[in-house]
Amino acid sequence: MSQTQQIARLSDAQLVVLSAAAKRADCSLMPLPQSLTAKGAALAKVVETLCRRKLAEERRTINGAPEWRRDEDGRSLGLFITNGGLLALGVDDTEKQKPSQAPASMPRQRKTAPARSRRQTRKASPASSNRGAAGQSKQDLVIKMLRRQFGVTIEDIVAKTGWQPHSVRGFFSGLVKKKLKLPLVSEVGKDGVRRYHIAPITSSKT
């Protein structure tokens, strides 16, 4: 089924919920958008349908992530968009991707207004500055790992950054390939493991 058909099959409420999740760094559906008109049982039906179609899934939450419900053992469960949900939105289609649909998995850089004065910059929230620095340092770390001669696996990047696997793939698609336009190569080695690396850029002679 094409991405256009996938989107066409989504209801307005489902589209709003998935689009909001795709814009978040952790890909969480929570908190659900306040603009939703569906409430109570109707809203639960929206979520149930997304999970049944494997466009969203329940996972245990960590680090105080927003909670959807608790399981029988009292453990906190969250709701997250899946790879299928991202594909249904066309997030991995880099040719047609809109800026507002940038992969949630890719840490977003905070934009600053050009006219902001130095005084306003100094007054910026320390917490916001720290979050931006942390996100940028992870981006730099992943790019550095991708420049290794023998490449790196998605599992290696997950272990170093704490990102989800689909977040790593979104980073490859949205930042490495589209924004930075780096020649990302994916190869399966003799051991059957897929590794990714940035190919050396050679300047052509004129």
Features:
206 residues, alpha+beta, Arc Repressor Mutant, subunit A, two-stranded antiparallel ribbon, 5 strands
Give me the secondary-structure topology:
Elements: H1 3-8, H2 12-22, H3 40-52, E1 56-60, E2 69-70, E3 76-81, H4 83-88, H5 118-122, H6 126-146, H7 154-161, H8 165-179, E4 184-188, E5 194-198
Antiparallel strand pairs: 1-3, 2-3, 4-5
Short characterization:
Helix content is 41%, strand content 11%. It is an alpha+beta fold. The protein has a three-stranded antiparallel β-sheet with strand order 1-3-2. A two-stranded antiparallel sheet has the order 4-5.
Give the terminus-to-terminus CA distance. Answer: 45 Å
| Helix proportion range | 40-55%
The CATH superfamily of the largest domain is known as Winged helix-like DNA-binding domain superfamily/Winged helix DNA-binding domain
Tally of helical segments: 8
Main CATH class of the largest domain? Mainly Alpha
Q: Please tell me what the overall shape is.
A: elongated
* Class from secondary-structure proportions: alpha+beta
- The string of secondary-structure elements, in order, is HHHEEEHHHHHEE
Provide the low-confidence segments as ranges: 93-105
Q: Per CATH, which architecture of the largest domain?
A: Orthogonal Bundle
CATH topology of the largest domain: Arc Repressor Mutant, subunit A
Q: Let me know the largest β-sheet.
A: 3 strands, antiparallel
